[in-house]
Amino acid sequence: MVSGTELGRRVDSRRLFALTAPLITTSDGKKMGKTAGGAIWLNSDRLSEYDYWQFWRNTSDEDVVRFLKLFTELPLEEIGALEQLKGADINKAKVVLADEATALLHGRDCLKKIHDTAKSMFGGGAKNKKGGGGGAQNTDSLPRIAVTAEEMEGDGVRFADLFLRLGLASSKKDARRLIQGGGARLGDDKITDDAAALTLDDFGDDANEVTLRAGKKRAGVVELEK
Q1: β-pair type (189-190, 184-186)
Q2: Which family does the UniProt entry place this protein in (predicted)?
Q3: Buried-most residue among 22, 44, 128, 139 (CB within 10 A)?
């Protein structure tokens, strides 16, 4: 910044000013703006609306009120009421934070679909063993990628590669660590081998998509193009 102001002065003799602000960190001292899958992008083609919502929903208990003040346009009186929530009820404040932050960026029209997806995926709704598209789950808001039948022939495509392509891991090493740590699932089935691959058999006879899960709150869809 200092170099930039000096360059401006030399180019046209204008006096320029550089403004700085304190770095925003979480309560544990970490810089905000990162997830296990990488950077938080504002463009929905780089980060799905659902994943953006989940980023805010996963805010820690200690940070939620401060972030409501910093990143939403809610009246302070309303935030003050949310500040009184304790225990499990504080999750209501996190949903409000996620809703308001997402609405500012993507509009409110996407919120119902996001809520339906979150409830379907993680709210105890009907489950499909392999995560296929049997109609029990609403996956519309989840990030998704497409694979072709040709890609899936033979040994298939490794799960580590799919987690990376979906943005559920920041690198292949991170994807393997996720699998080794027991946090990776195909539908409701735990993936235990970091060299395992998704094959055509995993889609079933009448399903054209499967759901991969990373931990408790993140998921993505692999769609089969036939």
Answers
A1: antiparallel
A2: Belongs to the class-I aminoacyl-tRNA synthetase family.
A3: 139
Which residue type occupies 130? Answer: K
* Same domain assignment for residues 91 and 150: no
Let me know if 132 is exposed, middle or buried by CB neighbors in 10 A (0-12, 13-18, 19+): buried
Other C-beta atoms closer than 10 Å to the C-beta of 20 total: 6
**114 lies in some domain:** no
Contact 181, 192 (CB under 8 A): no
Average pLDDT, the chain: 87
- Render pLDDT for 176-188 as a digit per residue (tens, 0 to 9): 999 999 999 998 8
The residues, ordered by sequence, that sit 6+ positions from 130 with a Cβ below 8 Å of its Cβ are: 186, 187, 189, 202, 203, 204, 207, 210
The DSSP letter of residue 28 is T
For residue 110 the two structure tokens come to 């996407």
> Which residue has 């002065």 as its token pair?
9
pTM as predicted? 0.67
One-letter amino acid at 40 equals I
Question: Would you say residue 14 lies in a domain?
Answer: yes
Asked if residue 20 and residue 98 are part of one domain, the reply reads yes
Amino acid letter, residue 12: D
- Residue 123 belongs to some domain of the structure: no
- Domains: count for the chain: 2
Residue 134 vs residues 20, 50, 130, 203: alpha-carbon distances, Å: 52, 21, 10, 11
Q: What residues form DSSP beta bridges with 221? A: 144, 211
Chain centre distance of CA 84 = 27
- Give helix 76-83 / helix 90-106 axis angle, nearest 10°: 150
